[in-house]
Automatic annotation (TrEMBL):
Belongs to the ABC transporter superfamily. Keywords: ATP-binding, Nucleotide-binding, Transport. It comes from Pelosinus fermentans B4. This is ABC transporter related protein. GO terms for molecular function: ATP binding; ATP hydrolysis activity.
Length: 339
């Protein structure tokens, strides 16, 4: 790779590999050197500068090549994830889970069970791509085969994006800067357009609107979840999304799921919400730390979703009345009819 890079000018390098500018951003006198070849640029770096950086010339050159190779790897096509398979392990008492469940791209599978029953443990096994090396002894297959274990540790091969119950930003960025930075890291060409689209989608999901210049640290819990769901749908390369109790986020739950499914993600969601549980193609029932059974959502249950959704819509309307300082001394007639 060095043979081809070393003869380019710095200007040509930035044109062909825009991310290379990040590597050089901390070095002095870059503007005056843009017409220099990359090889000449490295040769001309003064010893005092290298000493200030605390690095030798050869080591610095190797770091540059390593950076370029890693960034190019991000562009490589990844193996398409068509399915994941959960092979049962054991529950908290050591009782065997008699199950082998395959979940395909575009499916929603809900995980239900009492608090503390082991729903989050199952999500963790999938995220860790367990190979009988977790407390549950479960095994996860990708496309029906043993996975490449680099996916456990490598950012570029990460299979799973997880949206947890508690989400807080600690970086000093605006919403626009945060999304734009993520889009840039994915080496997209139309960063401004993608960023604007993601923020618009997040606002469709959030209960309360926010602006592109809103600091991410000022977002509410619901706004943060909405932003991360839109960001995951459009920017995350992870084909599997694990969601822990989205019902408490105060966002448009159904549209959030549709957004992820439209992007052909495999969605697994731990939930206590009956509407979300019935929106799934299947639901995994967890008891005593183990998978008790898997239930296919029936057509009759899907029919009941219409009634449950109508009730939910009315409850949301009442919530908005209360949030805006109103009174509900009398239950609206339409809601009484539903109940």
């Amino acid at each position: 790779m060095w043979d081809s890079l070393s003869v380019m000018t710095i200007k040509q390098l930035f044109s062909s590999y825009p991310y290379a500018a990040d590597f050089f951003s901390s070095l002095p006198n870059l503007e005056q050197s843009e017409e220099s070849s990359v090889g000449a640029y490295f040769a001309a770096i003064e010893e005092d500068t290298l000493q200030d950086l605390g690095i030798g010339r050869q080591e610095f050159l190797e770091q540059f090549l390593s950076f370029m190779l890693q960034m190019e790897k991000l562009k490589e096509d990844k193996v398409k994830i068509e399915s994941i398979t959960i092979i049962g392990g054991k529950d908290k008492q050591g009782k065997a889970e008699d199950i082998e469940l395959t979940i395909h791209a575009g499916e929603i599978v809900c995980i239900v069970g009492p608090t503390g029953s082991g729903k989050s443990r199952l999500l963790a096994d999938i995220e860790w791509v367990a190979q009988q090396d977790t407390p549950t002894n479960r095994k996860i297959l990708i496309n029906g085969q043993l996975p490449d274990m680099r996916c456990r540790f490598s950012v570029e091969h990460k299979l799973v994006a997880q949206l947890s119950q508690n989400m807080n930003f600690i970086m000093d960025l605006s919403v626009e800067e945060f999304v734009s930075m993520h889009a840039e890291s994915r080496m997209l060409e139309n960063i401004e357009e993608v960023t604007s689209h993601i923020i618009a989608k997040a606002n469709e999901l959030a209960g309360e609107q926010f602006n592109p210049d809103t600091p991410v640290t000022s977002l509410s819990g619901g706004q943060s979840r909405a932003l991360m769901i839109a960001d995951t749908a459009y920017l995350s390369s992870s084909p599997i999304v694990l969601i822990d109790e989205i019902e408490n986020a105060g966002i448009d739950r159904q549209n959030a799921l549709r957004l992820l499914i439209d992007k052909q993600k495999i969605v697994l969601m731990a939930t206590h919400d009956p509407i979300l549980a019935l929106m799934g193609d299947k639901r995994i029932v967890i008891k005593n730390g183990g998978i008790s059974k898997v239930i296919l959502t029936s057509e009759k249950e899907r029919g009941n979703l219409i009634l449950l959704t109508a009730i939910d819509r009315k409850m949301l309307a009442i919530r908005e009345v209360l949030r805006s300082g109103g009174h509900i001394d009398e239950i609206p007639m339409a809601l009484e009819e539903i109940i």
